[in-house]
Amino acid sequence: MGFWTNNPSKAPKAKTPKGEPKPAKTEATPQGSTWTQGRQTGAHVISVLMLAAIVCAPFSLFMSWQAVSRPVAAAPVVSSGGLTAPQQEAGAYAAGFVSEWLGAWKDHPGQLGDYVDVNALRTLSEVPSSYRDLTVATITPNKGSDIVTVVVSASVKELGPDPKKEGAAIEVWPRRYFQVPIVVTAAGMRPVGLPVPVAAPTSTGSVQLAYAKPLPSADPAAQTVMAFLGAYTTGKGDLSVYVSPGSEISPITPAPYIAVSSVDLRVDTDVPQTPKDGTRLQVLATVTLTSQTDQTVTSTYALTLTARATRWEVSALDPAPAEIPKSTSAAAPAPTPSPSR
């Protein structure tokens, strides 16, 4: 058809009115046309690619979902805690299982079927459980077995007695623990049974802290500690006055509290009256902090003090309290600090 031809030379020629000079012949510059065969081919290819993308998108999404939801079998790399990578992943897997188990109910089993055969369960709850703050408490490999026992904890909504009104009930959120056995193999991981409510795990370890001696509030070291904590938590005073040169300690900004008071101060050794430069002292300070809304909390700060020019300065805000070395703790036990009454 003439309207779709690709040869401009065959297009109908416009007639020149009589009496007008014919225009000079010029060399035509090739122009692209929206109806050329090349653009038709390009448009066809783009249409095919778009159609393929639309067709493949659900499949790709499904495969991506499968890759995410499928248990991952990682290489057995031993972590610093003595657990392999798959054993650590079993904790997250168990947490997801407990989450679906708690939230499943008769009309909405959720994703519980990803872990167990829902049809094999006799009944599901008529109403779902309300829970929050779900976390992994412990991960314990079973010796000589592929099964890892995971304990997951969560705050579960329950009803408890109202202390203000006899016979009435109020909403409470006790911490509950659920034990889940997970089999971990190269092919992945699966639960071996349903979650079991258990008692909270007990700690079998004991720590002997190094702060065996009380520190009187009138001692210069105690005064340094309280002045430092006041500037650190309330923003009152110049913190740098109480900090050793070179120690990178900055106050909490903005200051969350308006007052700090001493409850109990303890040190790891006798405090010299006139300390020599470089003398170190470890302090465990139990203090009460008061906020602008008159709320109070009790906190424990572990500090290292260093003497300079016969005065004490805070050289470190310790990340954890100091312990007595295990080799000497049996011979010279130290009591854990307790607030003075």
From TrEMBL:
Disordered: annotated segments: 1-38, 318-341
Annotated TM spans: 45-65
Compositionally biased region (Polar residues): 28-38
Keyword terms: Membrane, Transmembrane, Transmembrane helix
Keyword Nuclease: no
InterPro entries (UniProt xref): TcpC
Superkingdom of this protein's organism: Bacteria
Annotated protein name in UniProt: Conjugal transfer protein
Organism: Microbacterium alkaliflavum
